[in-house]
């Protein structure tokens, strides 16, 4: 708490999703402490130049009640250097933050993962579920799956609830990655061979309208739900 208001540490605040989440949290009464990579004039921000297994989060977690972890390595070529980058940031960096949060007494940790933890396609089967056996696709999906596994262990060992969100493609104005590529293709006037139901939805914000969520209560319990 700070000045009678709860404090949340938000990583990835300058990213596509983070730019939408920060004002929503503020509207809900939270003081948003953004983890930024370069110095900021905002007194609530905390300088975190890099995220990996050695990041010191102690100052950033002071007085916090919750963590929303969005920061991740993405949109990189699938080559060998990228494998190490994904692991260092998405897996090792996430688990370092979670361990520091648990040690600081944080009670709620929200991790934005990826639907790629489930796999790349259902191949005509029923839609993905949060309790499916993970079949991660690519180095990005694997790095997220490994982080989820580690988060579950941390939640079971500490009194910290962990919520894992696996969004599909998140898109809207200013989106990067595959959606940006799709927009550029449309602008070129190239016919698109759509032949299946869309798997992404949009209602004017950065958020997918349907995502898979896993919930790991602290203290060794386990539950999952769809949202």
Description:
The chain starts with 6 loop residues before the first strand and ends with a strand. It contains 5 helices and 8 strands; from the N terminus they run E-H-E-E-H-E-H-E-H-E-H-E-E. It is 30% helix and 16% strand. Strand 5, helix 4 and strand 6 form a beta-alpha-beta unit. Helix 3 runs parallel beside helix 4. Residues 198-209 and 221-227 have low confidence and may be disordered. The chain has an 8-stranded mixed sheet with strand order 3-2-1-4-5-6-7-8. With 227 residues, the protein is of the alpha/beta class. The chain has one domain: Rossmann fold. The radius of gyration is 18 Å and the shape is globular.
In short:
By secondary structure, this protein is α/β, with parallel strands linked by helices. The chain has helices spanning 18-27, 58-61, 80-103, 138-157, 177-187, and strands at 7-11, 31-36, 46-47, 66-69, 108-112, 161-166, 212-216, 223-226. The chain has a single domain, classed as Rossmann fold (3-Layer(aba) Sandwich), CATH 3.40.50.720.
Describe the protein's topology.
Elements: E1 7-11, H1 18-27, E2 31-36, E3 46-47, H2 58-61, E4 66-69, H3 80-103, E5 108-112, H4 138-157, E6 161-166, H5 177-187, E7 212-216, E8 223-226
Parallel strand pairs: 1-2, 1-4, 2-3, 4-5, 5-6
Antiparallel strand pairs: 6-7, 7-8
Helix pairs in contact: 3-4
Task: Give the overall pLDDT as a whole number.
Answer: 83
CATH class: Alpha Beta
Can you summarize the main beta sheet?
8 strands, mixed
Principal-axes geometry comes out as globular
Low-confidence stretches: 198-209, 221-227
Number of domains: 1
- Any idea of the CATH topology? Rossmann fold
